[in-house]
Amino acid sequence: MNGGWWTSLRLVTRIAWEQGRGHAVAALLEVVSRVLTALFPLFAGLVVGGLAARDLTLVLLGAGGLVLSRALNFLLVIVGVESRLVLMERVGHAIDLRVGQLSGEAATLDHLEDPAHQDQAQALAERLGRVGMAYNLLVNVLNNLAGPVITIVVAATADWRLLLLLAVALPATWLGRRSIQWEAEAEKAGAEAGRRSAHLLGAATAPVASSELRVLGARRWALDLLSREAARWRHPHRTAEVRTAGWSIVLAVGYLGAAAAILAWMVRDALDGRIDPGRLVTGVLVVGQLRESVTDLQWVISGLSGALRAVSRYRWLEDYARTVDEEHAGTAAPPARLTDGIRLQGVGFRYPGADRESLSDIDLHLPAGAVVAVVGENGAGKSTLVKLLTGMHDLSSGRILVDGVDLRALDLPAWRARCSGAFQDHARLELTAREAVGAGSVEVLDAGRAEIDSRVLRALEDSSASDVLRALPDGLDTQLGAAWPGGVDISGGQWQRLAVARAMVRLDPLLLVLDEPTSALDPATEHALFDRYAEAARATGGRGGVTLLITHRFSTVAAADLVIVLADGGVAEVGTHADLMAAGGRYADLYALQAAGYR
Ligand SMILES: Nc1ncnc2c1ncn2[C@@H]1O[C@H](COP(=O)(O)OP(=O)(O)OP(=O)(O)O)[C@@H](O)[C@H]1O
């Protein structure tokens, strides 16, 4: 095993220890039971040899050993197995929880955009159960190690020829190692196809995507694609399994041939009176036991190494999260209020794995207290700009200054606690309406009921979403989502408006982002809503917060203090609506075009 495996073993043992010291130790009792079982041929040989030699001491010793091994075995196995199972569940649960935390708490979202990370995460997800089983399998390896070791000792004491069997039994361990390698190669070769088939399966079963595919008549095509990808994922695994099975058969036939020859040799010696019948009995039992225990050992080692591969992926995730955290070790507290605002200086950004920058050479000043609208065609870089301002990705070049302090120097969670936002791809939190909105500022949910309700109701009002609440049968207590008992379904536009309300719960954010939060609403309603946001933002703008509105509807942005036009990843124009109209450039053209469309 290489160093990585040892680290994984230590990690698994530590987690098992933390999850239940008593169980971790009790699980090892099974090893004792395996030792007693492995001694069975010796005890049986003693009984038969003692009877043949009319030696009562030998008979009693053998019989005592047989009875003891059977009785203790029963007890130790029950305690050991029970402890292993309890730990398996606890370790699995602890790992599940930790994986969720590691993915959710990573300082940036780069990992979610990185194909290499996604392949690792997919392989981990496929094998997550195995991580939980790792300690269980480790104890099993120890259990199964006892078998061959004791059997070899018993064989050596019974007859030296039995040791020749080792020469044919040991290649099975070679197969064990090779099959682990084949499986690892198969996992790697199938990772991308596995991720793709999981994605297609999700699309085929998720209500929205699946109904869209039906309407488009593309369901059959998607299912065919899914089975092709699943086959592409399965193929390398199948090949590895067939190889392993083929070699297992070859090795088993070789072993049986050798065992038959050695036993025939021993039978002849027994008939000639050169060895006593007790040794022959031990020999016969050892032949079966040796092969069985070596094969079992091979399989548990291969099971353990599969689990350790999953553990090594988990360690990879831990290392990744640690590296990301170290790279974002800023500790400066964000200012209580903004006085200068947010500045972007020479900002450039390329997504992980992308071949070109999505934003480059961005120089901007978002003044404290201002309502800033960002417009631009699809793919211009609007959402990317938001991700950078909220610290979701590291800049490829340049810097972002919050009142003169580099975003990298700020404590990222503290900065995010001062940001708020509603997004086009908002979360549909299927909770009660109170929780779904209150989640915009989780400390609100910890307050008393009256405080929660007043903040949530105010947020609904600020986002003109009070009518959504009125339509809910149990008001704030209504369970959202038809999949839950008593739950109600609401429309896409209503979900979106609750998301906007959620963004309004946090008081005095330094950065409030509204990234096409009203795309499901008609232009007139969006216009009215934005006027309201602008009004609310100006009321709080006295505390310096910047409100950033991203929209495709130019008519909505006239009320903004500043309009930024993005094009091809760069800033095309900046100014007030009036300035940009007077300049007669890209903004004025697009504005005129949209205005004509609505006439
Ligand atoms: N995860 C990603 N990986 C690689 N490239 C990406 C990723 N997300 C976005 N891009 C690219 O970055 C560019 C800017 O995308 P962005 O989503 O910021 O545009 P946008 O202006 O918000 O577009 P839209 O109006 O369609 O929402 C596009 O060229 C897009 O293809």
TrEMBL record:
**Where found in the cell?**
Cell membrane
Residue ranges of the ABC transmembrane type-1 domain? 24-306
Q: What is the membrane topology listed in the Swiss-Prot or TrEMBL record?
A: Multi-pass membrane protein
A single GO cellular-component term from the record reads: plasma membrane
Gene Ontology MF terms: ABC-type transporter activity; ATP binding; ATP hydrolysis activity; ATPase-coupled lipid transmembrane transporter activity
According to the record, the segments passing through the membrane are 31-51, 58-81, 244-267
The residues covered by the ABC transporter domain are: 342-593
Q: What are the entry keywords?
A: ATP-binding, Membrane, Nucleotide-binding, Transmembrane, Transmembrane helix
PROSITE patterns given in the database record? ABC_TM1F, ABC_TRANSPORTER_1, ABC_TRANSPORTER_2
Which superkingdom does the taxonomy of this entry point to?
A: Bacteria
Tell me which InterPro entries the record gives.
Answer: AAA+_ATPase (IPR003593), ABC1_TM_dom (IPR011527), ABC1_TM_sf (IPR036640), ABC_transporter-like_ATP-bd (IPR003439), ABC_transporter-like_CS (IPR017871), P-loop_NTPase (IPR027417), Type_1_exporter (IPR039421)
Major site of localization recorded for this protein: membrane
The keyword Zinc-finger belongs to this UniProt entry's keyword annotation: no
Record bears the keyword Transmembrane? yes
Specify the protein name. Answer: ATP-binding cassette subfamily B protein
